[in-house]
Design a protein that fits this description.
The protein is built from eleven helices and two strands. Residues about 1-25 and about 30-50 have low confidence and may be disordered. α1 (about 1-10) runs antiparallel to α2. A two-stranded antiparallel ribbon has the order 1-2. The protein folds into three domains: about 1-50; about 55-110, 434 Repressor (Amino-terminal Domain) (Orthogonal Bundle), CATH 1.10.260.40; about 110-180, no CATH class. A hairpin with a 2-residue loop joins β1 (about 150) and β2 (about 155). It is mainly α.
Length: about 180
């Protein structure tokens, strides 16, 4: 930089202004390159993690709920084209859509008021209960729906990791019909 600055001083101020423009342009180019690399890495990571719900499951739930593509689009606040692309497998189903569909599915199914909460079914210790958001909000039947649950002594980092465990759990299975 010092050598280039000295050279520009020798060549005059007009050249320095051009050099300043070139540096600005190169910085913008490198900044754009960094953004492209970041987006590329982010997309690769997202594809590796993926979503847990697939297009067939999405379609089965929509049919079980008795909703058209337009009706489910309104419930999920997305376009009808997005619903079509979810069902065709062109797009991954986002976690928020999966969460909303599973919640609606659990509401459609009648629940037994005498069912024990998750912390009793899973025999959670008092320590675990005190760290768990499901226990805090007294949502023992919807522990699978709430983020920040402390299930079996650990927090899950994201929705996909959480659902891997929840789909194996008897609490989730009691709330969601067996069509999945």
């Amino acid at each position: 930089m010092w050598l280039l600055g000295t050279t520009m001083w020798l060549l005059g101020t007009t050249m320095w202004q051009e050099y300043h423009f070139v540096v600005f342009y190169v910085n913008r180019l490198f900044f754009s390159m960094y953004i492209v690399i970041f987006i590329d890495i982010y997309c690769d990571i997202f594809e590796m993690i993926g979503n847990y719900m697939d297009n067939k499951e999405f379609s089965l739930i929509r049919h079980y709920l008795g909703k058209t593509q337009k009706q489910i689009a309104l419930l999920l606040c997305v376009s009808t084209k997005a619903i079509q692309s979810f069902e065709e497998g062109w797009r991954n189903i986002p976690a928020y859509a999966e969460k909303q569909l599973l919640f609606l599915l659990s509401l459609k199914r009648s629940t037994d008021e005498k069912t024990e909460p998750c912390w009793e079914i899973r025999n959670c210790s008092i320590e675990w209960r005190e760290n768990c958001s499901a226990w805090e909000f007294k949502a023992g039947h919807f522990c699978w729906f709430i983020n920040g649950t402390f299930c079996q002594g650990e927090w899950k980092k994201n929705w996909e990791q959480k659902m891997i465990g929840c789909r194996q759990c008897e609490v989730f299975q009691s709330m969601i019909p067996s069509l999945i």
